[in-house]
Design goal:
five-stranded mixed sheet; binds dinuclear copper ion; 176 residues; three-stranded mixed sheet; single chain; alpha+beta; 10 strands
């Protein structure tokens, strides 16, 4: 079979370009610590408010006895609840997101926080914000007419000045 040399050359160029792009994506995801979302954890989105974890008074920032920081936020048309949270910089923070209705997404520009919030699943992302700032929180999956208005923000405070909420209540202790 005869392939024209010019055609061959273009063939190599296009394969090379595809290889280059895959390489850039791999290096970039390695440098920025981007992981594929793998937290396959199901939840009944229609009954979210009745679950223990995502009940209204359990949302927001919590710190357990070991000092682990967990933030629970519910995405619903058209907002994030609670509307605002404050977390410390340079500290691992685990975000647990759940949707109350349809598919939403969450994206915090300038950080590696970006995940889909699929109804029926809990999306978990652990990240650490390098420096204090006020970060916007945007829905990045089209979820209806109010999608453009679905945003919120997160304040990242210096580790030293951040006020930890009281330790999460546990069943057996009364806490102080
Ligand atoms: Cu929620 Cu778009």
């Amino acid at each position: 079979m005869h392939i024209d040399p010019l055609e061959k050359k273009w063939g190599y160029i296009s394969i090379g370009m595809a290889g280059l792009f895959v390489g850039i994506i791999m290096i970039d995801s390695f440098i920025h610590g981007i992981d594929a979302p793998s937290n396959v954890e199901t939840i009944n989105s229609a009954r979210l408010h009745l679950t223990k974890e995502f009940a209204e008074d359990n949302l927001g920032v919590q710190v357990d006895e070991k000092g682990k920081i967990t933030v629970r936020i519910v995405a619903a048309r058209y907002g994030f609840f609670p509307k605002h949270v404050t977390v410390p910089a340079e500290t691992p923070v685990t975000f647990r997101w759940a949707s109350m209705d349809v598919l939403h997404g969450v994206h915090m520009p300038m950080t590696n926080m970006s995940t889909m919030i699929v109804p029926g699943y809990v999306s978990e992302v652990t990240t650490s914000f390098p420096k204090p700032a006020k970060y916007p929180l945007l829905c990045n999956e089209y979820c209806g007419l109010g999608h453009d208005h679905m945003w919120s923000n997160i304040t990242v405070e210096a580790k030293e000045t951040w006020q930890a909420p009281s330790i999460t209540k546990t069943e057996e202790t009364g806490n102080e």
